[in-house]
Specification:
Layout lengths: L3 E4 L2 E4 L14 E9 L11 E5 L18 E10 L12 E8 L4 E4 L2 E3 L2 E3 L2 E2 L5 E3 L4 E2 L1 E9 L11 E5 L7 E2 L5 E9 L3 E11 L6 E2 L10 E6 L3 E2 L6 E3 L4 E6 L5 E7 L2 E9 L10 E6 L8 E11 L2 E8 L10 E5 L5 E6 L5 E4 L6 E8 L10 E4 L6 E8 L2 E7 L9 E5 L5 E6 L5 E2 L8 E8 L10 E4 L7 E7 L2 E7 L9 E6 L5 E6 L5 E2 L8 E8 L10 E4 L7 E7 L2 E7 L10 E5 L5 E6 L5 E2 L8 E8 L4 E2 L4 E4 L7 E9 L2 E9 L11 E5 L7 E6 L6 E7 L2 E9 L10 E7 L2 E4 L2 E2 L2 E2 L2 E8 L11
Parallel strand pairs: 5-16, 17-26, 18-30, 27-33, 34-40, 41-47, 48-55, 56-65
Antiparallel strand pairs: 1-2, 1-3, 3-4, 5-11, 5-12, 6-7, 6-10, 6-13, 8-9, 13-14, 15-16, 17-23, 19-22, 19-24, 20-21, 24-25, 27-30, 28-29, 28-31, 31-32, 34-37, 35-36, 35-38, 38-39, 41-44, 42-43, 42-45, 45-46, 48-51, 49-50, 49-52, 52-54, 53-55, 56-59, 57-58, 57-60, 60-61, 61-62, 62-63, 64-65
C-alpha cells in the first residue's frame, strides 16, 4: 500500500520502502499533511512545514516521519430513533466491550484515570457520555445496561470500529481523535381496538331502525393528562386536547395506533339515528410495563341502546288505558309517521331520533271526553322508556252565591270564539257538564238572566286548559253595599246619596242613609258607577264623588263614603291661646260667603264645604289689641281625616323706657337701680322687674300689650332716696300715656323721666 503526503497542491507518493520524493517546487514554504495511512489502526503524522530556498534537481532536504498506533476517545450519544432528538429527559447507562482478536472473545473496557477505573458511562443532561481515556483501535460493541425512562431496549447489538476510517472521526484543537457512537432507542406506542354493537329491541309495535351504517358513528379521542415526549420531557399534547375524530369501519370496528404512552379517553360524539348516544368517557391508558414491548393494546367493546317511546292514552283517573282514541305521531315536518287506535295496552315505538321534536295528536276522542290538545315531545338521549301520556278531561260549570250555594233558575250559555252557541241551560242544584268543548280552545260563559235578588254576573271567558284534571268553571252572583260614615267610622244618618250609571248617566238608585248599610239595586257586574252625595248634614264636608266598578271578585263588595269636618281655630301668635271676638268669614273661589262667625274659645266647624275645592279664610274684624291677620287660602283635601286650619293674630306690643334723673340738676343718673311694673295701683301684683342700664341711666319694659300698668321704683341709685312715686301707664289704640300725659315715640320706644332726690349729708361743726 502506498502512502500519500499532500504538499499544498501536490501529492507525494511513498514507495514500498517508505520513501517519497516530490516534484520540482518553487521557492517558498509548504505544509505537509498525511492524507492516507497504510492501516486504519495507526495515526496520521502530525502536520509539518518545508521551506524551499534554492534551485536543485536533487532533494533539497529529507524529512523522516513515523506513524503511531491509532487511539481515540469515544463520545456516546443517546437519541430518539424516530425523531432524532437527544434523549435528555432521563439517563442511559452503557458498557463497552472490545473484541480480542487472539481468542475472538469480547472483553469489557475500562478507563483508568490515576487510581480510578471506569467501566460504565451514564449520559449527562445533553444526552452524551464520553470515555475518560482514549481507546485502542479495534472492534467494539455497546451494551445498554440502563434504558432511559419511556424507551425500549435497542433493536440490535450496536457494534463499531475504532480506527481512522470511522465516518464519525473528528479531531479537537489538541488534535485528539474522537469517535461518536449514537445509540438510538424507540418509545413504545399504544394501539386502541374498539368494537361497537347496537342492541335492537323486541316486543315493539313499530321500529325505525333497519340497516345499521356503523360508519355514521363517530368518536373523539382526547388526552386525560399531558402527553410528553420522553426524549426531552416536552409536552406533545396538553391535557384535554382532542387527538382526532374517528368514524367506525363498516363492520363496527375502529383501530387507532401509533399513540404515545399516557392516559386518554374516548367518547362517542355521533351515533346512528334512533340510537342512544353513549356519553360515557372510556379510559384508554397506555402504561409501559417493560423495556421490550414495543406496542401496547387496549381493547374496548361498546354497546349502544336504541330509543324506546311508550304512548299511553288515559282518562283523568289514570287507572287504565282509554280505548277508542285515534292517535297519530307527526315528525318535525308535519308528516304522519305512525297511526293507531288506542286499546288496553300502551303503544311502543323504537328508534325515534334523539333531540328531534315529535307531536302526539288525538284525531278522534272517545265518546264523552274532550279532545286533547297536541303534545310536543323531544326524544332524550336515554335507553330508558320515555313515556308520553295523553289524558282526556271534562269541564263542569257551577252557578252559586257568595256562600257557595247553588243558584237555581239562572239562564246560561257558552259561546265559542266565533260567537256560536256551544251549549245552553238553566241552572239547577247540580253542576252542569258542558258539552262540545275542545281542549285548548277559548269560550265565553254568559248569564242572560239572574234570579231575583242577585246581580247579573259579568261574562266569563275561559280556556279549556291542558291540565290533566277535571276543570271547574264557577259563576258567582254578588251584592254591593254602601255605607256612610264619619272619619271615626261612625254611621251618619240623614244624608241623601245616589248611584249614577257611567254608561247611561241615569240614576240607578237613590236613598237617605240610615244606621244600616244600603244594598244597591240595579247594578250590573263589571260596569262602572258614580256614588254621589246629594244632601249633607250640617257640619260635614260634602264628599267628592266616588267612581267604582262592580268588580268580578266573588264576594260582597262594600263602598264606604266618609264625611270629614273642617275646623278653624283663632289663636294668639305668641301664646297660642284661643282668641275670642274675631269676626271671620270663609268664601269660595268666586267670592261667595260660605260661612261667617265670631271666634270663641272653641274651634269652629265650617259649614257648606266640599272636598277638593279651594276657599279663603278672612279676618273681617280682629280682637282689640291685635293686628289683623292676613287671609288664608286652603283646599279641602280628599284625605279621610278631619282638617284643621289655624289663623294666628299678632298682639300690638309697645316698648316703655324710664329715664332716671336728678330732681334738682335734672341730669341723668347713670347708676344701678330697679323698677317694677304691676297690674294694680297698690303695686301688689308684680308683672316683672327691670334692671337699669347704668351706661345711659334707663330702664326699659319691652313688648307691653294694650292695658293699664303701674310702675314703681324698687331699688334707688346709690346716694339717692327711694322714691314712693307710682306712675300710671296706659297703652291703648290712642297711644301711650304716663300719668295721662301722652308720650312721644322715638325709635319704637316711648320714654318718660323719673326723678330721685339726693340724700343730704349733715354738716359738722369744728371746735
Amino acid at each position: 500500500m502506498t502512502n500519500l503526503l499532500k504538499m499544498n497542491t501536490q501529492y507525494l507518493e511513498h514507495g514500498s520502502n517508505g520513501h517519497g520524493t516530490s516534484g520540482l517546487l518553487a521557492y517558498g514554504e509548504y505544509t505537509v499533511n498525511e492524507t492516507y495511512t497504510p492501516s486504519p489502526e495507526i495515526n496520521k503524522v502530525e502536520e509539518f512545514y518545508v521551506r524551499i530556498d534554492k534551485d536543485s534537481r536533487i532533494p533539497v532536504k529529507e524529512y523522516v516521519e513515523n506513524d503511531s498506533p491509532f487511539r481515540a476517545y469515544i463520545k456516546l450519544e443517546k437519541k430518539d430513533k424516530e425523531t432524532g432528538k437527544s434523549v435528555v429527559y432521563s439517563n442511559a447507562t452503557f458498557e463497552l466491550y472490545r473484541l480480542n482478536t487472539d481468542n475472538n472473545k469480547w472483553e469489557k473496557v475500562q478507563c483508568k484515570v490515576k487510581n480510578e477505573y471506569f467501566d460504565s458511562w451514564t449520559t449527562n443532561s445533553d444526552g452524551v457520555a464520553m470515555t475518560e481515556t482514549k481507546l485502542e483501535a479495534g472492534s467494539y460493541k455497546l451494551a445498554e445496561i440502563k434504558v432511559p425512562k419511556g424507551y425500549t431496549e435497542l433493536d440490535a447489538e450496536l457494534r463499531f470500529e475504532v480506527n481512522n476510517r470511522n465516518e464519525t472521526l473528528e479531531y479537537d484543537q489538541d488534535y485528539d481523535a474522537w469517535i461518536t457512537v449514537i445509540a438510538k432507542n424507540s418509545q413504545p406506542t399504544g394501539k386502541l381496538e374498539l368494537k361497537k354493537v347496537v342492541n335492537l329491541r323486541e316486543d315493539v309495535d313499530k321500529t325505525f331502525i333497519k340497516d345499521i351504517d356503523f360508519t355514521q358513528i363517530v368518536f373523539d379521542l382526547i388526552t386525560s393528562e399531558d402527553i410528553i415526549d420522553f426524549a426531552d420531557g416536552s409536552v406533545i399534547y396538553k391535557a384535554g386536547t382532542k387527538i382526532g375524530k374517528y368514524n367506525l369501519n363498516a363492520d363496527g370496528t375502529l383501530t387507532i395506533d401509533n399513540l404515545k404512552m399516557g392516559k386518554y379517553y374516548i367518547k362517542e360524539v355521533q351515533t346512528i339515528e334512533g340510537a342512544v348516544l353513549d356519553e360515557t368517557k372510556y379510559d384508554v391508558i397506555f402504561e409501559q410495563t417493560d423495556t421490550t414491548t414495543k406496542e401496547y393494546t387496549v381493547n374496548l367493546n361498546i354497546e349502544n341502546e336504541t330509543t324506546i317511546t311508550e304512548i299511553s292514552k288515559q282518562d283523568i283517573t289514570g287507572e287504565k288505558e282509554l280505548e277508542g282514541a285515534t292517535l297519530t305521531i307527526l315528525d318535525d315536518k308535519g308528516e304522519i309517521i305512525d297511526s293507531w287506535v288506542s286499546n288496553k295496552e300502551t303503544h311502543k315505538i323504537e328508534g325515534l331520533i334523539v333531540g328531534k321534536t315529535y307531536v302526539l295528536r288525538e284525531e278522534i276522542a272517545p265518546d264523552y271526553f274532550v279532545k286533547a290538545t297536541d303534545i310536543k315531545f323531544i326524544i332524550e338521549n336515554t335507553g330508558e322508556i320515555q313515556k308520553i301520556t295523553m289524558i282526556d278531561k271534562i269541564v263542569t260549570m257551577t252557578k252559586a252565591d257568595i256562600a257557595g250555594n247553588e243558584v237555581e233558575g239562572a239562564e246560561l250559555k257558552v259561546l265559542d270564539k266565533d260567537g256560536n252557541v256551544v251549549d245552553s241551560w238553566t241552572s239547577t242544584k247540580e253542576e252542569h257538564k258542558i258539552k262540545g268543548l275542545v281542549e285548548g280552545e277559548t269560550y265565553t260563559l254568559i248569564e242572560d238572566y239572574a234570579p231575583d235578588g242577585y246581580v247579573i254576573s259579568n261574562k266569563i271567558e275561559f280556556t279549556v286548559t291542558t291540565d290533566k284534571e277535571t276543570q271547574k268553571i264557577e259563576m258567582i252572583d254578588k251584592i254591593v253595599e254602601v255605607r256612610k260614615t264619619d272619619v271615626a267610622g261612625n254611621t251618619i244618618e240623614g244624608i241623601t246619596l245616589s248611584i249614577i250609571s257611567n254608561k247611561t248617566k241615569n240614576i240607578v238608585d237613590k236613598w237617605v242613609t240610615t244606621n244600616e248599610a244600603h244594598k244597591v239595586s240595579g247594578l250590573i257586574e263589571g260596569e262602572s258607577y258614580i256614588l254621589r252625595e246629594e244632601i249633607v248634614v250640617d257640619g260635614y264636608v260634602k264628599a267628592k264623588d266616588i267612581e267604582f266598578t262592580v268588580t268580578e271578585e266573588k264576594e260582597t263588595q262594600e263602598i264606604t263614603m266618609i264625611d270629614k269636618i273642617v275646623e278653624i281655630v283663632k289663636t294668639d301668635l305668641t301664646t297660642n291661646e284661643e282668641l275670642e271676638g274675631a269676626e271671620l268669614t270663609v268664601t269660595d273661589e268666586d267670592g261667595n260667603i260660605i260661612d261667617t262667625w265670631i271666634s270663641t274659645k272653641e274651634p269652629h266647624v265650617v259649614k257648606g264645604l266640599e272636598e277638593g275645592k279651594t276657599y279663603t279664610l278672612t279676618e273681617v274684624t280682629c280682637p282689640y289689641g291685635y293686628e289683623q291677620a292676613e287671609s288664608i287660602t286652603f283646599t279641602v283635601t280628599e284625605e279621610k281625616e278631619n282638617q284643621k286650619i289655624e289663623m294666628k293674630d299678632m298682639p300690638i306690643l309697645k316698648n316703655l323706657q324710664v329715664i332716671k334723673v336728678d330732681s334738682k340738676t335734672k341730669e341723668v343718673i347713670k347708676d344701678k337701680f330697679t323698677f317694677g311694673i304691676y297690674e294694680d295701683s297698690e303695686c301688689t301684683k308684680l308683672i316683672k322687674e327691670v334692671e337699669s342700664n347704668k351706661e345711659n341711666g334707663t330702664a326699659t319694659f319691652e313688648d307691653l300689650r294694650y292695658g293699664t300698668y303701674h310702675i314703681k321704683e324698687i331699688n334707688a341709685p346709690k346716694g339717692y332716696k327711694l322714691s314712693d312715686k307710682i306712675t300710671k301707664v296706659e297703652i291703648n289704640d290712642k297711644g301711650v300715656f304716663a300719668d295721662n300725659i301722652e308720650l312721644a315715640e322715638q325709635d319704637e320706644v316711648y320714654s318718660f323721666e323719673f326723678e330721685n332726690e339726693k340724700i343730704e349729708t349733715p354738716k359738722t361743726r369744728r371746735f
